[in-house]
């Protein structure tokens, strides 16, 4: 998808915008499908606890997102600029959370997939808004789309990242802090998850991404 975007879909775009648009394209193919996949994986299992054993469906949902973040990480590494260091760190930290949940402890997918849903539910709107923002300077249509999308996008993004995300994180931290999951999710694992997710939410709120 990335190669098709770079070599075909956005081939007439300026070189600087071409790679960013291709990254948005794979994000479009990941974000909304990931929301549906993760939601179905969560609700397919009646045991929706923070320390529940991962089901095969939940593991597949995690693998899908691991693939996306790995490819997008390669994009940032290949087209590296000093401003991309934050995104590289974000992707590495996110991969750590997904991979430890999927392959190291085999528990906690309910929590991680719920956070994934909260992170990606704004993805479609955000990527369309970002693509429009890239071309708003030389396209009246892009400028119009960017202007129309900005108010609802900011409102939606603020509610999800500023309210729903922190509320769920508080409940997740409260559960793990009680120690009831230490036998299946070691303390250093869930503490690292909390640090990564709190950092990601904080950065997304202050940077709008």
From TrEMBL:
<dbReference type="InterPro" id="IPR006634">
    <property type="entry name" value="TLC-dom"/>
</dbReference>
<dbReference type="InterPro" id="IPR040327">
    <property type="entry name" value="At5g14285-like"/>
</dbReference>
<feature type="transmembrane region" description="Helical">
    <location>
        <begin position="153"/>
        <end position="170"/>
    </location>
</feature>
<feature type="transmembrane region" description="Helical">
    <location>
        <begin position="21"/>
        <end position="44"/>
    </location>
</feature>
<feature type="transmembrane region" description="Helical">
    <location>
        <begin position="56"/>
        <end position="78"/>
    </location>
</feature>
<feature type="transmembrane region" description="Helical">
    <location>
        <begin position="111"/>
        <end position="132"/>
    </location>
</feature>
<keyword id="KW-0812">Transmembrane</keyword>
<protein>
    <recommendedName>
        <fullName>TLC domain-containing protein</fullName>
    </recommendedName>
</protein>
<feature type="transmembrane region" description="Helical">
    <location>
        <begin position="85"/>
        <end position="105"/>
    </location>
</feature>
<keyword id="KW-1133">Transmembrane helix</keyword>
<feature type="transmembrane region" description="Helical">
    <location>
        <begin position="190"/>
        <end position="208"/>
    </location>
</feature>
<dbReference type="Pfam" id="PF03798">
    <property type="entry name" value="TRAM_LAG1_CLN8"/>
</dbReference>
<keyword id="KW-0472">Membrane</keyword>
<feature type="domain" description="TLC">
    <location>
        <begin position="16"/>
        <end position="209"/>
    </location>
</feature>
<dbReference type="GO" id="GO:0016020">
    <property type="term" value="C:membrane"/>
</dbReference>
